[in-house]
Amino acid sequence: MKNLMKAKNNKGFTLIELMIVVAIIGILAAVAIPQYTQYTRSADAQSTMSEASPYKTAVAVCIQTNGGALAPCAAGAEGIPAVAGAVTAIAAGVITVNFGDVDGDTTVETGTLTPAIVGGQVQWTYASTAGTNVCTDWVEC
C-alpha cells in the first residue's frame, strides 16, 4: 500500500517551458535570417568585384604603357585578357561588370569601373548602370 501512495516522479518539460524555448528561437531567427541574407549578398558582390581585379591590373598597365591613353585598352588587346565570367566588356579602359540579381528584386545589377589618371596613378571609380548601387550597399569600391 505504501508504494501506491508514493507520488509519481514526472520527467520532462512543461508546456510553458517549451513555449518559451520556441519563442526565443523565433526571436533569434527573426534577427539572424536578415543578417545572413545581407552577408551572402555582400559575399556575392565582393566575389564579383574580385573577378574584375585582374582586368583592372591589366588595364592599368595598358594605360601606363600607352602614356595615359585609354582608347587602345580593350579586351583582348594590349595584354588585356578576353572577357569572361562577371566581366562582360572592356572598351577604352572602362570595365563593365555583371553582378547578377544580388538583391533579389529580379533586376540584374550591372556597373562600370572607369579608370582615371590622378597624380600619375590610375584611380578607379564605380558607377551603377542598372539595378541597385552594389558598391554603396554591399561592397567597398
TrEMBL record:
Which residue ranges traverse the bilayer? 12-33
The answer, when asked if Transport is one of the entry's keywords, is no
Record's InterPro entries? N_methyl_site (IPR012902), Pilin-like (IPR045584)
Please give the superkingdom of this protein's source: Bacteria
Q: Which Gene3D superfamilies match?
A: Glycoprotein, Type 4 Pilin
Keyword entries, A-Z: Membrane, Methylation, Transmembrane, Transmembrane helix
Which PANTHER family does the UniProt entry name for this protein? GENERAL SECRETION PATHWAY PROTEIN G (PTHR30093), PREPILIN PEPTIDASE-DEPENDENT PROTEIN D (PTHR30093:SF34)
NCBIfam families xref list: IV_pilin_GFxxxE (TIGR02532)
- Of which family is this protein a member? Belongs to the N-Me-Phe pilin family.
The name under which this protein is listed is Type IV pili fiber building block protein
What organism does the record attribute this protein to? Thalassotalea eurytherma
